[in-house]
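yo

u said u wanted the structure for the complex thing, so here. seqs first:
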Amino acid sequence: MTVNKIWVIVDRQGDKIAPLSLELLTKARSLGGTVEGVTWGDADAIAAEVGSYGATTLHNVGDLAGGLPGPAVAAALAAAIGAGNAPDAILVPHNYDGRDIAARLSVKIDRPVLTNVVGLEEAGDGLVTEHAIFGGTEVLKARFTGEGPGIYVVRTKSFAAEAGDGGPATVSALEVPDLGATGGAKITDRHVEESEGPKLDEAPVVVSGGRGLGEADKYSMIEDLAKLLKGAAGASRAIVDAGWVPYSHQVGQTGKTVKPTVYIAAGISGATQHMVGMKNSKNIVAINKDQEAPIFSIADLGIVGDVHKVLPKLIEALKARS
Amino acid sequence: MNVVVCVKQIPDPANPGKLTSETHTIVRDGKLILDDSDAYGVEMALQLVDAAGGGEVTLVSMAPHSETSGLRTALAMGAAKAILVSDDALAGSDALSTAKVLAAAIKRAEPDLVIAATESTDGYTGTTPVQVAEVLGWPSISFAKKVAVADGTVKVDRQTETGYDSVEVSLPALVTVTAGVVEPRYPSFKGIMAAKGKPVEELKVTDLGLEPGQVGAAGARQEVVSVEPAEARKAGEIVVDEGDGYEKIVAFLEQIKVI
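structre next:
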């Protein structure tokens, strides 16, 4: 199997194309062959940008009428594959809706999925994926066997997004078969939580707190420091599980992957589940009481000390400068 | 209302994970424990059954060597019974095969609602629950941060990139819950004692009407090419705070031109 045709799921954040989908389009373009986007909702609005990233066609599942993307997009793609238009690879963003689409499509076309993909290269007659395992200490490479398209669910920041010089993609309607019960879930209301400052996965500076903060109230130090550095506030899974901060702040395997200019880990020991989400930051600063904490093994600057002493002084010093 | 919770029994995440050298699958030979991520689903299910005023919580799990220690933890929390699929033929199963097995086991319990974690802590593929829903032909709502059931409808606050969506669907349905959705109870002594006597039905692949060749390593259509150490990140300067630790950080931030 050589890679002749790739589908890329084009998801959105608000009115814009999700940065992760632009990363996937860029990667797909670099692999050669034909790149086609798959989206839903108002496809015309994004056809020019999708085209500039290399897609010639933008398949449109259309208005979801309040339904979740998973069942409709998966059913439409499965029908297209059944009609003989199968691509060799389908690149799916590793996000909320992307995972639903991949899971349902997998069952419909009876092909497995490879998720948490962080690298993708052509090798021999197909694609080989890379996965960071055990906190990123080891790299596992894998591939699909057998006939049929490979479904690749790719993590954010695995590839850079770079526009090319392609003209607008041709929008083509994709028919959605009857979804039966699977399409039953409906969105009745959307809630946008206002957040100050840059987004966690786009911020040049990320300050994260962990169990070492001791109690929920102390997380305000993390927020203060993030604000002073014009960055975003993150968290380890431990304090998200403990209910100190919402899940949307979580950095790590089950949360966001970040690659800021500098990542400041305060009171985070460095569980593998956390490290996999931040170890590719350009610079890492760690503050932890325990000299043996694994986080120090990847820190450019490690301060063995009490976050309750170091952070207030750091915040004061930065305030004095501004 | 009857609820099935899909639970995974995993090696203790506190210990470093290992892959077998031959098949590159996660070593599960030691004692397995209930995946922390699943404790939220079990608690959610118990609360929903309580609120409904009747019904029971059934656990469904797939594990090697008739492993039940993780199931006992969830039974001690208050689940009524468990279905365990344990079969040598299942070794090396990918997420799709796992979903087919779980779906077949879930059907036997005839639940109104299935709850699972968004992903397991050890393998974290993160697709199995929705694959189960698709095999069953059911709707699903993933990434729930709040769940309520009333009049045969499940209402969910579903996590999004920018906040959350209110989503609802008629039962039967499958919901995946994020960590922190509820505070899992600790099993009481009474619960632990009662759990020892609760029924665990153990099944083989053929009991579920599946062919052994469809599942496990025989049915997997993906393979590991290699496993290699990642390029190590060099550790930098580690200093003990003598009251001047913050100055080192300020100097470092200046050096990399963040301030």
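Residues 205-321 of chain A form a domain with the Rossmann fold fold (CATH 3.40.50.1220). Residues 74 and 107 of chain A are 9 Å apart (CA to CA).
cya
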